[in-house]
Amino acid sequence: MRAMVLKQPAPVESSPLTLEEVPEPQPGPGEIVIAISVCGVCRTDLHLVEGELAPVRERVIPGHQVVGRVLRRGRAAERFPEGARVGVTWLHRTCGGCTHCREGRENLCRAASFTGWHHDGGYADAIRVPEAFAYPIPEIFDDVDAAPLLCAGVIGFRALRRSGIAPGGRLGLYGFGSSAHIALQLARHWDCEVFVCTRGDEHRQLARRLGARWTGGAQEAPPEPLDAAILFAPAGELVPSALRALRPGGTLACAGIYMSAVPDLSYAEHLFEERSLTSVTAHTRRDAEQLLALAAEIPLRPETTRFPLERANEALQQLKRDQINGSAVLTLGVA
Ligand SMILES: [Zn+2]
Ligand SMILES: [Zn+2]
User: Fold this and answer.
1) Distance from the CA of 102 to the center of ligand 2, in angstroms?
2) Can you state the angle between helices 178-189 and 152-163, rounded to 10 degrees?
3) Fewest 10 Å CB contacts: which of 73, 79, 150, 185?
4) Closest listed residue to residue 90, CA positions, set 132, 143, 178, 152
5) Which ligand places an atom closest to the C-alpha of 282?
6) 72: helix, strand or coil
7) Which ligand lies nearest the alpha carbon of 43?
8) Residue 111 Cα to ligand 2 middle (Å)
9) pLDDT of 126 strictly over 70
10) DSSP per residue over 253-283, as a string?
């Protein structure tokens, strides 16, 4: 099968992913092999390709927003019939037995492993995953629209919950990429007023089209105090201005897996009056199931730009330059 393989992290401008012919994976017990039709491109893939996320294997196929159909089932894998349409997310497997797993916070499992990092991901014609970590895709979505829901959507959903935003509240979004443009749609569904701080006029236009009440530059102060905010940009220098924009008691949730250094904070200016600063770490299976159900009910409409598999480097380069509006996806089995 074809795969885009990362052997050595390097600046994405040097096109570190190479197209290779690799053996098709075989399912082990409880596993399925999926014929991939679409794989979403996530900023985490960029962090992996460029080495900000340290590689854990000598070679890896990135990609963790996979939509496809069950091609083969391993022994005792009976959850999905062959041909069933399923999705794969960042969470590849958890231990199931640790305190975090038992408390419903498997996203914090110390033994968790991740798709497209510890295990080969979806920048390929096929992928092997535990069937317990695959998800049925609601019929309302075609493959392309479903792919960005599987990380951008799920993380946006978890970030909204971590931020404590309530229906009708005032929400700030810092950075406006794939995840933020889905989080905005969720927040609007909950009748929140959304304020978007981002560089890039096209991102601001998309935010307004999706219902943002106000848009401004990355460091600009929203016109009203925010009940909650989410920092999607991997830019620690935005933390102080985002905290300053909160009302007393408000929460800032940082949604990325990687962030540049956070500058010194002033207790009085940024944290006092019970402002909270928190993070979002991966997701649980329940997050993914709930987000997919909610996405179908609304329904969410991701804005997508398609690239063929062999142009994965280019998709990541455009993502790095903030040139993707909404979500980039790699198409494999679809035109
Ligand atoms: Zn992701
Ligand atoms: Zn665990």
Assistant:
1) 7
2) 60
3) 79
4) 152
5) 1
6) strand
7) 1
8) 6
9) yes
10) EE--S--PPPPP--IIIIITTT-EEEE--S-
pLDDT tens profile 47-105: 999 999 999 999 999 999 999 999 999 999 999 999 999 999 999 999 999 999 999 99
pLDDT at 335 over 60: no
Q: What pLDDT, on the 0 to 100 scale, is given for residue 333? A: 75
CA of 105 to the centre of ligand 2 (A): 8
As a whole number, the mean pLDDT across the chain is 97
Q: Quote the Cα angle for 19-121-93, to 5°.
A: 165
From the CA of 90, the nearest ligand is 1
Gap from CA of 135 to ligand 1 centroid (Å): 16
Phi, psi (degrees; rounded to nearest 5) at 35: -80, 120
**CA–centroid distance, residue 117 to ligand 1 (Å):** 11
- Please report the pLDDT score of residue 334 as a whole number: 63
Tens-place pLDDT, residues 180-230:
999 999 999 999 999 999 999 999 999 999 999 999 999 999 999 999 999
Domains of the chain and CATH, by start:
2-151+282-331 (3.90.180.10), 153-279 (3.40.50.720)
- Cis bond upstream, residue 55 (ω within 30): no
Task: Output the CA 269–ligand 1 centroid distance in Å.
Answer: 32
Euclidean distance between the first and the last CA atom of the chain, given in angstroms as a whole number: 18
The bound ligand whose nearest atom lies closest to the alpha carbon of 280 is 1
Residues with CB under 5 A from ligand 1 (ion): 42, 44, 151
Residue 90 CA to ligand 1 center (angstroms) comes to 6
Cα–ligand 1 centroid distance for 97 (angstroms): 25
Nearest ligand by distance to the CA of 182? 1
Tokens read off for 237: 């220098």
